[in-house]
Every structure is written in structure tokens, then in C-alpha cells.
Write a structure and sequence with these properties.
By secondary structure, this protein is of the alpha+beta class. It has eight helices and six strands. The strands form two sheets. The protein has a four-stranded antiparallel β-sheet, with no helix packed on it. Strands 1-2 form a two-stranded antiparallel ribbon. The longest helix is centred in the N-terminal third of the chain and has 67 residues, at about 100-165.
Length: about 425
């Protein structure tokens, strides 16, 4: 995720509102579990991708400082000539930045630095959301693996009971075979769930390879409703790192246009010479000015203006996509949260009762083996679907946090200042 340095604000669940200062219409951030904050902050801080982005910020600052230095250095000349007349001269010359090129170059470098800062924020957010998404995959994978173990245990018990009933003459061979197939299928699903759990752990280990699984924090089931600031998406997206970077690119293009215009102004060179010619003192003053006759450097300005127009169009496109992403993320989150609320309030309790009742009915002979197996499998599948729903809810929440510019609050205000 593109996924965009200035601080905005994030949160994670279980969460309580606290002020957010990134430019939203009103305060709208939240506070996550301290263990989760500490874990995420330590991982992001030590991440090589984030460290590389931080180094790029430092480099851009050095480039800005370099651009602010004088454009021309003085030149020293020494001349000696032995003919009929002995001549010795010492001269110094200095080209003057008559067109203000130094100031224009500094403006370009400063705009570039601001772009890199926005990219640094985006790198932090990308790693943060990637880590949170990995934790969601791991937690879901662990619970899916536990569900697969429960499925295998149920199906093994079912197959054992079916064998005893078959031996007692209460069950047909077809039903026994069906029970055995169900047990085998449960073992296959257990192996598949184990592989999925290993893959989910890799998603976290990609970012923190040396941390133990037991140290990984868990994510809560309950997530908050969207804050009122979500009703003003235009204000939220205007401070997103990718939007800021695109806007800075336009400012850089403006600065380049000004630099190209200033480069069309010739810079004069002033020279002072002093010396001795056959015992007599020599003093000379010389001024040279380049004549931009054969090349007036106008095409460079035309090209810079076209690149500025390109940067503006790209900035408009980024803003438009960021707006659409935020609106869609809010819609997905609200839908997922509503569905999860329904499941948590009614479905989970109903599912637990359903499993117990099915077993009693089948053992009492009031339910055929086929019907029992179909309904039990459906019950387990619903539980797995609920896990998928909760993972989708987490992912929708993380997506909204990114799209609304609310990522940094999880790490603490000013954590990377």
C-alpha cells in the first residue's frame, strides 16, 4: 500500500479519542494499547526501509545547504613575462551572481527536501500498516489453525463413534465411509491451516525477524466508529504524504522555472590586476560579460514550464485518487464493522449452541449421519468465515487509517521528530 514528512494521526482499537493536529476539520484520533504502541514503534524505528528514508532526508538537507552556498569562487592568476620588458602581474577575478541564480537553486533544493520528507513519512506509514496487517494475518491464522484442530478433533471423534455404531450394526457402510472421509478432510484442512499460519508469521517476520512470536501483541475484536472528522474527506486527504509530496513536486517545478529564467541572465566577471612592468607599477580593471547571442537559453524555460504543467496534473490526479481511496475505505470499514457487530451480538452464541445440539441429536439417533455431517461442517465453515470477516475488518481499519492520514498517533506524537 502508496502504501504516503509531517505528522498526522493513528490509532488502533480498543480506543479512546484524543486530539489530532494534522489539519482535520476537528480532533479525531485515538489511543491504542501501550504494548501495541511500543512494539510497532520499535519495529518501525529499526526498519531498514525507514532508516534509508531518514538518510535520504539528511542527504536532501545537505544538498539544500550546498545549493545555498555561493555559486562562483574567486580565481587567482599569476603572470610573468621576460622579453625586452620584464612584466610581473598578480590578478584576482570574481564572477558575480548578477541574476540571482543562487537563490533560485536554493529554492529548488528546499522543495526537493520537502518532497523527500513527505516520502519519509510515507515509508513510516507503509511499514506501520504492513506490520499491523501482518499481525492481523498472524492472529487470524493462529485462530484458524486452532479451529482446524478443533475440526479435526470433532471429525476424529465422529469417525470413532461412527465406527462403534457400525460395529453395533446401527450404521451403514456408506455412512461409516463418509465419516472417515470427513476425518481425512479435516486433517488436510489442518495441514493447510498450519501452512497458512506459517505464511502469516512470515509477513510479520519480514519486518521483525528476530522477535519471538510470544512477544507479538494481539489486536482487539472491537474497533471504534469513524470519527466525525471522516465527514470532511477533503481536509483529511490534503495532508496525506503522497498528496504533500505531489504538491511539493509542483513547488519544485515552479522553482526550476524561476531558475531557468534566471539562468538566461548573463553573469559578469570582474577582474583586478596589479604588478610591475619594467620597474613601473601596473594596475588593471577588467569586466567581461558573456553575450547570449547564439544561444538565448529560452528552450530550457519552455521545457521547465511544460514539466511544471505535468507536475500539476499529476498532483491533481494524486489528490483525486486519495479522495476516492478515503471514501471507499470508509465505506468498506463501516460495512465490515456492521457485519462484525451482528456476528458478535448474535451469531457467535448461536453457533456454540448449534454445535452442542447437533451432537446430541445425532447420538440420540434423531439426526442422520449425513445431515449431522453437513450441518456440523456448515457450522465450522461459518466460524471460519467469521475469522475472515474480522481480518477484513482489521484490514479495512488499517486502510482507513492510512487513507485518512491517522497513522502516526499509534507511534506517539512527535515520535520521529
Amino acid at each position: 500500500m502508496q502504501f504516503p514528512h509531517c505528522g498526522l494521526a493513528l490509532v488502533l482499537s480498543g480506543l479512546v479519542m484524543f486530539p489530532w493536529t494534522a489539519g482535520a476539520a476537528e480532533p479525531a484520533a485515538m489511543r491504542a494499547d501501550p504494548a501495541l504502541i511500543q512494539f510497532v514503534q520499535s519495529v518501525v524505528e529499526s526498519n531498514p526501509r525507514v532508516q534509508a528514508a531518514r538518510a535520504a532526508v539528511e542527504a536532501s538537507g545537505a544538498f539544500r545547504d550546498a545549493a545555498s552556498r555561493p555559486l562562483y569562487n574567486p580565481e587567482l592568476s599569476i603572470d610573468a613575462e621576460n622579453t625586452d620588458v620584464e612584466t610581473r602581474t598578480l590578478g584576482i577575478s570574481q564572477t558575480l551572481d548578477w541574476g540571482g541564480k543562487r537563490k533560485a537553486r536554493t529554492a529548488v533544493a528546499e522543495s526537493d527536501r520537502l518532497v523527500v520528507e513527505a516520502e519519509y513519512l510515507a515509508a513510516r506509514w507503509d511499514v506501520t500498516v504492513e506490520l499491523l496487517d501482518g499481525l492481523a494475518q498472524h492472529q487470524t491464522g493462529a485462530e484458524r489453525d486452532a479451529l482446524a484442530k478443533s475440526r479435526q478433533q470433532l471429525m476424529d471423534e465422529f469417525a470413532a463413534l461412527a465406527q462403534r455404531r457400525f460395529d453395533a450394526g446401527d450404521l451403514a457402510q456408506v455412512e461409516l465411509d463418509l465419516a472417515r472421509l470427513a476425518s481425512t478432510d479435516a486433517r488436510i484442512q489442518k495441514a493447510t491451516a498450519g501452512a497458512g499460519l506459517a505464511e502469516a508469521r512470515q509477513a510479520v517476520r519480514n519486518l521483525t525477524p528476530r522477535s519471538a512470536v510470544a512477544q507479538w501483541p494481539t489486536l482487539p475484536d472491537a474497533l471504534p466508529a469513524l470519527p466525525k472528522s471522516a465527514e470532511d474527506p477533503q481536509s483529511l486527504v490534503s495532508v496525506l504524504p503522497e498528496v504533500l509530496a505531489a504538491r511539493r513536486q509542483v513547488e519544485t517545478a515552479d522553482a526550476v522555472v524561476e531558475l531557468r529564467r534566471r539562468e538566461r541572465r548573463p553573469d559578469p566577471t570582474l577582474s583586478l590586476t596589479g604588478g610591475d612592468e619594467d620597474g613601473e607599477s601596473l594596475v588593471g580593471v577588467n569586466v567581461t560579460i558573456p553575450l547570449f547571442v547564439r544561444n538565448r537559453f529560452s528552450h530550457e524555460v519552455t521545457a521547465a514550464l511544460a514539466e511544471r504543467s505535468e507536475a500539476q496534473r499529476l498532483s491533481d490526479d494524486v489528490m483525486q485518487r486519495a479522495y476516492a481511496r478515503l471514501v471507499s475505505a470508509a465505506e468498506r470499514y463501516e460495512l465490515s464493522r456492521g457485519a462484525w457487530g451482528d456476528w458478535a451480538s448474535t451469531g457467535q452464541a448461536s453457533l456454540t449452541r448449534q454445535t452442542e445440539q447437533l451432537k446430541r441429536l445425532w447420538q440420540a439417533g434423531e439426526l442422520s449421519t449425513t445431515d449431522y455431517l453437513v450441518q456440523l461442517t456448515t457450522t465450522l465453515d461459518v466460524q471460519e468465515s467469521a475469522l475472515d470477516l474480522r481480518e477484513a475488518l482489521w484490514q479495512a481499519w488499517f486502510e482507513w487509517l492510512w487513507a485518512s492520514g491517522q497513522v502516526d498517533a499509534l507511534l506517539g506524537k512527535g515520535a520521529y521528530q
